[in-house]
Amino acid sequence: GVLHEDLRLLLDTALPPKRKKVLLGVGDAKMGAAVLEELGVQCQTGGVVAELMRGIRLHFPALVRGLTAQSAAKAQLGLGHSYSRAKVKFNVHRVDNMIIQSISLLDQLDKDINTFSMRVREWYGYHFPELIKIVPENSMYCRVAKFIGNRRELSEESLEGLEEIVMDSAKAQAILEASRSSMGMDISPLDLINIESFSRRVISLSEYRKGLQEYLRSKMSQVAPSLSALIGEVVGARLISHAGSLTNLAKYPASTVQILGAEKALFRALKTRGNTPKYGLIFHSTFIGRAAAKNKGRISRYLANKCTIASRIDCFSEVPTSVFGDKLREQVEERLAFYETGEPPRKNLEVMKEAVVEANEVVAEVKRRQEKKEKKRKKREKRRLEALAAAAEETAENSVMETEENDVGAKKKKKKKKQQQPEESEAEPEENGVEEEEEEEEEPLPKKKRKILVEPEQQEEEEKKKKKK
């Protein structure tokens, strides 16, 4: 009923203050009432408005400038993708698809391990038929067959290894005595090698099944903790797998959850007008097995009701906890005791009030832990960024220092070159000092000296001329 901010902004900008009484065509009556309440704009709804809106949507690319039919189709496709993406849960830890696949694989592994174990029994039974009665369990039989090999080689020394596998000294002694007086046929070493390799494969499959069961338990505690606490991990996972998802299971009524998995018997009963089934997959729960024959239908109906509540709590709660599942399990136990002893159980309202209080405490604790983890993660991220920034600064400083050192080195080289040049110029006159002196001797005399030297010669010539005269 609250008007969207974008629509309010659009109407405030589109309509001037004086034209608030303009009739505005809106396809939805609730939207029109909200616009009238918030902005005081009278809106008209009806069949004519719906046709007008349909025409606007049809010819929208022609009415808006710059909008082509191709871009409008792209916008519609993007809107569809974003809507579908919003419907998908992005929480990786609460994905029920993994539960569906793991429970399907677990059921398939049970069938395959059973078939392969029977094959090992028949194959090794030709050589040691008495072992089948002593060790009835499939995986243990495969381990014992792999350990024994040829029964004629079994001795007192291998008794300790047998006790470790069988975990019973009496059984190990019985196997040793049976091997000495066995009626089985002899077997070749090649056949024994094949039997041992096949037994090894069956053992590895059974070990993988244990690991897969642990994985399923951990996923159920994350995705549907209340349902797994109420009815068990395997039965809860089968219910989710049969419904298709946890959301679909939460949408089912209790009457559907009660007979989920017994659809074939239900339709056969409807067709033949016989008795409809009382339970489906929830029959594998321990509660129905513990109830008396006359109370099985009642307890199955009650258990289906509680399963529906638990699945809805798991599906639509932000922080899933197992508190509600534990309380619902206590209620089913009390109802079982009521059918047997007549002791009245607690009321549902009282139990749910206690569960809400405990769940709030647990949620607060979980949120506190998440905040701590988030703070630690932010601190680690901050430290990492600081370390990266410090490393970047160090590399920048190192590069600056290297450039400065290169500049200083270049300057020093230039100074050295300049110093070497005058030294060379000074060293050259020292080396060629003799030559310079000789050159100085050969240099012409100055004019005054020339005059002094020339004057006596001229006087002598003049005297000679005078004598001649």
Walkthrough of the structure:
- It is found in: Nucleus, Nucleolus.
- GO terms for molecular function: snoRNA binding.
- Keywords: Nucleus, Ribosome biogenesis.
- Residues 423-443 have a biased composition (Acidic residues).
- The chain is mostly helical and 469 residues long.
- Among the domains are: 5-68, no CATH class; 97-214, Helix Hairpins (Orthogonal Bundle); 225-366, Serum Albumin, Chain A, Domain 1, CATH 1.10.246.90.
- The chain has 22 helices and 2 strands.
- The chain has helices at 5-14, 29-39, 47-58, 60-63, 69-87, 97-125, 131-134, 138-148, 159-166, 169-180, 189-223, 225-231, 233-243, 246-251, 254-258, 263-272, 286-290, 296-316, 323-341, 348-431, 433-442, 447-468; strands spanning 24-25, 43-44.
- Helix 2 (29-39) links the parallel strand 1 (24-25) and strand 2 (43-44).
- It is flat, with a radius of gyration of 50 Å.
- It starts with a helix and ends with a helix.
Topology summary:
Elements: H1 5-14, E1 24-25, H2 29-39, E2 43-44, H3 47-58, H4 60-63, H5 69-87, H6 97-125, H7 131-134, H8 138-148, H9 159-166, H10 169-180, H11 189-223, H12 225-231, H13 233-243, H14 246-251, H15 254-258, H16 263-272, H17 286-290, H18 296-316, H19 323-341, H20 348-431, H21 433-442, H22 447-468
Parallel strand pairs: 1-2
Helix pairs in contact: 6-8, 6-11, 6-13, 8-9, 8-11, 9-10, 11-12, 11-13, 12-13, 12-18, 12-19, 18-19, 19-20
How many separate helices?
A: 22
Q: Tell me the major beta sheet.
A: 2 strands, parallel
* SSE series: HEHEHHHHHHHHHHHHHHHHHHHH
- Spatial shape: flat
Ranges where pLDDT stays below 50 over 5 or more residues in a row are 19-23, 426-454
State the end-to-end CA separation: 154 Å
> Could you tell me the strand content as a percent range?
under 5%
CATH architecture of the domain at 225-366: Orthogonal Bundle
Number of strands: 2
**Percent helix:** over 70%
Tell me, rounded to a whole number, the average pLDDT.
81
Quickly name the level 1 CATH class of the domain at 225-366: Mainly Alpha
Computed structural class: mainly alpha
Question: Which topology of the domain at 225-366 does CATH recognise?
Answer: Serum Albumin, Chain A, Domain 1
CATH superfamily descriptor of the domain at 225-366:
Nop domain
Widest beta sheet: strand line-up: 1-2
Rg calculated over all Cα atoms: 50 Å
